[in-house]
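name: query_chain
kind: protein
chains: 1
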Amino acid sequence: MKSMKALFVVATLTASSLAMATGGGDRTFARMESARKVSMETYQVAQKQKAEAAVAVSKAKATDHING
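structure:
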């Protein structure tokens, strides 16, 4: 009976370590990192466009005051 319990414990620990090793954590982390980079690049482009649009609007208002 003791040997069965010991065998069960060893089998359980072995199975859990194998399951974690083949879980694909590295691939998941790589996909997550790639998605983060794309997201940050998109955000930076959007912020740059927003800033350029604000400058264009302020220049347009400035010329309206000069001509008006």
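note: Helices lie at 2-21, 25-67.
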